[in-house]
Amino acid sequence: MIDLNDTLGQVATAHPASTLVFLRHRLDFCCGGGQKLGEACRRIGLDPDAVVAEIAAEGSSSAPERWDTRPLPDLIDFILTRYHEPLRLDLPALLAAARRVERVHARKGSCPHGLASLLEQLDAEIRQHLAKEEQVLFPALRAGSGGASVHMPVRVIMQEHDDHGASLRRLRELATDFSPPPEACATWRALYAGLEKLESELMEHIHLENNVLFPRALNALD
Ligand SMILES: [Fe+2]
Ligand SMILES: [Fe+2]
Question: Could you tell me the residue ranges of all domains in the chain?
Answer without folding.
Answer: 8-59, 72-219
